[in-house]
From TrEMBL:
<dbReference type="Pfam" id="PF13599">
    <property type="entry name" value="Pentapeptide_4"/>
</dbReference>
<protein>
    <recommendedName>
        <fullName>Pentapeptide repeat-containing protein</fullName>
    </recommendedName>
</protein>
<feature type="region of interest" description="Disordered">
    <location>
        <begin position="1"/>
        <end position="23"/>
    </location>
</feature>
<dbReference type="Pfam" id="PF00805">
    <property type="entry name" value="Pentapeptide"/>
</dbReference>
<dbReference type="InterPro" id="IPR001646">
    <property type="entry name" value="5peptide_repeat"/>
</dbReference>
<dbReference type="InterPro" id="IPR051082">
    <property type="entry name" value="Pentapeptide-BTB/POZ_domain"/>
</dbReference>
Amino acid sequence: MARRATNGGGGAGGDGRARVKAARRPEVRLPALEAYDGAGLAPDGDYDGLEFGQADLTGQDGAGARFMDCALTGCVLDGTSLHHARLFDSVLTGIRGVGTDLAESTLRDVELADARLGGVQLHGSVLERVRVRGGKIDYLNLRKARLRDVVFEGCVLVEPDFGGASLERVEFVDCVLKGADLTAATLVDVDLRAAAPLEIARGVDRLAGAVISTGQLLDLAPVLAAALGVRVED
């Protein structure tokens, strides 16, 4: 049942990544799980070692709840309140929902795979050793959140809002990033080189602390010029 974060393999070396520290991936090993009894979420509930399979949690109130060593598979989270929830050492697969409230929550050693979410609220949250793999998330609200050792891999993010957020050792790997808002964000060791396309709607001036590719620099040139007040004429 031991869990250890693993280094993503970047950092020092001759692979061209020496200048940016790699995010540590979560490594979650779940114990034998008991099936969730479907009784419904409760505010400040304590859920340990449970498997939520295809559970419809629409509109339920699990604010302040704690999930430890849990698996949520194919669950529906439309309008579900998980405000200030804590998710540790858990795997979420194929979840879907619109307007899920995870504001001011804590996610640590969590894997999120193949999610289909819209308007999910994670503002003011803390994400540490989190891997988001596959799926699509529209209008992800991460304003003033703290992300450390977070990997977005093979997923589509449409208009994610990182306004005022702190990102440290965050990687976007084969990830579509459309219309991102980085207004007032702070970036440290953020690797955007494998994001394709990379579209930044606001806050391009906050890219200090990130690494991008030469091709991405050329693509962002008009936005950078506009942010700097540079007129480009031939």
